[in-house]
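Translate sequence into structure tokens.
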Amino acid sequence: MALKHFSTLTSMLTASFRSKTFGHAIKTSLFPVKSYSSATGGEHSETVVGQTVITERRGAVVSVAINRPEVRNAVNRETARRLLEELEAFDQDPDLNVAVLHGIGGNFCAGYDLKELANHTASLKLEQDVTKGPGPMGPSRLQLSKPLIAAVSGFAVAGGLELALLADLRLVEESAVMGVFCRRFGVPLIDGGTVRLPRLIGLSRALDLILTGRPIGAQEALAYGLANRVVPDGQALQAALQLAEEISCFPQQCLRADRSSAVYSCYDAPSFTQAMQYEMDHGIPVIQSEAVSGAARFTTGTGRGGQFSEDSV
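Result follows.
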């Protein structure tokens, strides 16, 4: 239960500071695992000691892990830079379809590293124009063209909550805790928290969390729509990877067109008519590239009866 984490709240380091650039059973991975890093030019066999962000490539899926467990994966400047670098690399890689963001050591992310904020204020440089640079947490200003899934365990609070909000889907472990914990220290939400949270769960519920800073457990997050699925403790990453592999198997041009249209309708469309036009303009090219061949597969028996797996046809 979420209560198991509450006794440690007082010791937490929390805070918060776009890429166009600027219920199923859990199975084992379908693809071989390879370490991958844009910083080293792609796949590599060994993890760099002390690396704050670790990536692993599994076929067309890449996992991106925050690796600062000693501070509950609080993000400092180096970690923010690496998160931005890896998610931009994912978005630009034609061989990758879905990314999974998670934290190593039992916590997703406890926000921005308050010790760094307190001790290096003079050297902290924030780009105020959101079109000209990254957010304090790194990738928070990105508008990814492909799906991102957050596998949430332990604490996902303050800026960590904002990173989870960047994802399309959030798979949350039963004992996970989310919340705007930076409320206690006067650290504002400047990584999209006040923008994405009301869109996802509605203004009233968002203000409840933003104004009070209170913790929210997995089941309440599910009821709010903040969590998409709740999974047993210790299984968020594997469940997210399985889901990512399933999504990756669909025709990708169609999937990305539909995803883009949904996001445009929610955030950028000035009117219903323009949202409908965007949907049509981005859907029409998919008919020739994917829908015709998909319809032909259906006529041969594939997918009949609502089956998603071709192996079960």
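Note: The two ends are 40 Å apart (CA to CA).
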